[in-house]
C-alpha cells in the first residue's frame, strides 16, 4: 500500500476537495485547482488519487452528477437546465456521464425518480442516491438511485 502524504499535504488536498464541493458548477480545471494550493497539476492528481481513491476530475464529475440527481428529483427543471446548472457545457457529455454513473439517462431518472421517500434521513438519501463509479451501474434500466 502506498504511503499517504504528510498532514500538510492532506490539508491542501482537503482545500481542493472543498473548493470542488463549493464551486462544482463553475468552470474548474486541475491546473487552476493545483495553482490554488501551489502544486503542479500532476502532483495534485497523484496525491489526490492516493488519498481519495479517484482523480480530482473524477471527483468533480461525481459531485456534479450527485447534484444533478437532486435537481432532477425536484422535477421543476428540464434536463437541459439541470445540465447547465451543475456546470456541464454539453448536454451530450452530461447525458453520457450521467448514464455511466447512474445506469439510466437523466430523462429516465427524472421521470422515474429515485427510491427516496418523504421523511427519509439525509444520510440515507445520500447513500441511496450515490452514483456508482467505474461504469458499474447496470444499463438495463433497473438502477435508479
Question: Topology, pairings included?
Answer:
Layout: H1 7-22, H2 30-36, H3 41-52, H4 56-74, H5 79-85, H6 91-102, H7 106-112, H8 122-128
Helix pairs in contact: 1-4, 2-3, 4-7
GO molecular function, one term: sequence-specific DNA binding
Pfam family, one: HTH_18
Organism: Rarobacter faecitabidus
In angstroms, what is the radius of gyration?
16 Å
What gap, in angstroms, lies between the N and C termini? 32 Å
Question: Roughly what percent helix?
Answer: 55-70%
Question: How many DSSP helices?
Answer: 8
Number of structural domains: 2
- General shape: globular
Query: pLDDT below 50 for ≥5 consecutive residues: which ranges?
Result: 135-145
Report mean pLDDT, rounded to a whole number: 85
> Order of SSEs, N→C?
HHHHHHHH
Highest CATH level, the class of the largest domain: Mainly Alpha
Overall structural class, as computed from helix and strand content, comes to: mainly alpha
Q: How is the main sheet built?
A: none
CATH third-tier fold name of the largest domain: Arc Repressor Mutant, subunit A
Describe what this molecule looks like in 3D.
The protein is built from eight helices and no strands. The protein is mainly alpha-helical and 145 residues long. Helix 1 packs parallel to helix 4, helix 2 crosses helix 3 (41-52) and helix 4 crosses helix 7 (106-112). It is globular and about 45 Å long. Mean pLDDT is 85; it is low at 135-145. GO terms for molecular function: DNA-binding transcription factor activity; sequence-specific DNA binding. Residues 14-112 form the HTH araC/xylS-type domain.
